[in-house]
Amino acid sequence: MTTGPRRQRSVQELLGSIVLVFEAVVVGLAALVVNGLGGVSPVVALGGGAALCLALFATAGLLRYPWAPAVGWVLQGLMILCGVFVTMMFVIGALFAAIWTYAMFSGVRIDREKRRAS
């Protein structure tokens, strides 16, 4: 089986996928905290955390498509809304939204500069 050359990933795609995967790990740990605190049922805490983790991982893998960064923005909003269950998630969600914003805008700028230089 021969494979062709690998597709060149954009800087925006690389930075975005790094942010989303790291965020998925944090969401998984936060789901365990929410479950341990007992504020909501384990189905909501662990099921919701698992669903958000899967959405983050899936979006990280789909960032090559032009619509995927918009899904990433929606997921950042959901991450902030997790603060309803654990107040500290408002802060963590806002931090990840700031990192996501930086990754998206810096990635676009760097990709533009790379295209201009070549």
TrEMBL record:
Keyword terms, alphabetized: Membrane, Transmembrane, Transmembrane helix
Entry superkingdom: Bacteria
Annotated InterPro entries: DUF4233
Ranges that cross the membrane: 14-37, 44-67, 73-105
Name of the protein: DUF4233 domain-containing protein
Lineage, top ranks: Bacteria, Bacillati, Actinomycetota, Actinomycetes, Micrococcales
